[in-house]
Amino acid sequence: MAQVSLGALYHNGQGMPQDYGKARQWYEKAAEQGNAMAQHNIGLLYEKGLGVSQDYGKARQWYEKAAAQGDATAQSNLGVLYDKGQDYTMARQWYEQAAAQGNAYAQTNLGALYYNGRGVPQDYAVARQWFEQAAAQGSAEAQYNLGKLYEEGQGVPQDYAKARQWWEQAAVQRNGEAQYVLGLLYAFGRGVPQDYAMARQWFEQASAQGYASAQLNLGALYYNGRGVPQDYVRAYMWSNVAAAHSMGDEQKLAVDNRNKSVRHMTPLQIAEAQRLSQQCQAQQFKGC
């Protein structure tokens, strides 16, 4: 166990310079003695390409060694590898083993397989059961997914109030999707009184995490003066920021919204909006 702990110190750079090569050396010493945690951690290095060439085949081999000893995290990670490779039947089998041990990540992913009907018949009720187990352990992703079930009435009666409750739990954990959809609830008055100021607050939180859809909607609030004083400079800024890292129809809408703002702006205001856009992106959307 001391060898695993020493490997973890090098892996995380705790008390010493981060060194994935040395981490792997210590993990390998422990793995040779059958330590499941070390085997899992070597698999992680290969999966992420940390100190070694990225190699999903070797990652799978090491995860399998740990999983055979009942390591739930390795079982869950194997599920993810098969999920990404679109072998949903194998993904389900590994997720089930990890989920049975209470692994919240595997429970969430297993719920997603049932939600999407991948490797199993589509079943919203079973998806909800798995999401609930993960959500009870604090999984923000599962909490967000439960909110979507209640929003859409999938496997449960449609209930915006319950959707909001689940999304609020995810949002306080900084789940950007939950923060964004809460903004939409308040913007459109779904299950809550319409409140543009509240919509703005949630859009701001999601925008600070780089969520382009929230940035687009925040720009629209500034353009229309809803929940904020009308401000074409900030409307331009948020639309421009959203356009810079979105794609397809969303990017087109962001560009259109930016161009609408330009019609109401002086050259000096446009220059200021462009400066704010660059600053916002340089700050990684924090404090914009």
Question: What is the strand and helix layout of this fold?
Answer:
Elements: H1 2-12, H2 20-31, H3 36-48, H4 56-67, H5 72-84, H6 88-99, H7 104-116, H8 124-136, H9 140-152, H10 160-171, H11 176-188, H12 196-207, H13 212-224, H14 232-244, H15 248-262, H16 267-282
Helix pairs in contact: 1-2, 2-3, 3-4, 4-5, 5-6, 6-7, 7-8, 8-9, 9-10, 10-11, 11-12, 12-13, 13-14, 13-15, 14-15, 14-16
What does this structure look like?
With 288 residues, the chain is an all-alpha fold. It has a single domain, classed as Serine Threonine Protein Phosphatase 5, Tetratricopeptide repeat. The chain contains 16 helices and no strands. Helix 1 packs antiparallel against helix 2 and helix 14 packs across helix 16. The termini are far apart. The model has no long low-confidence stretch (mean pLDDT 93).
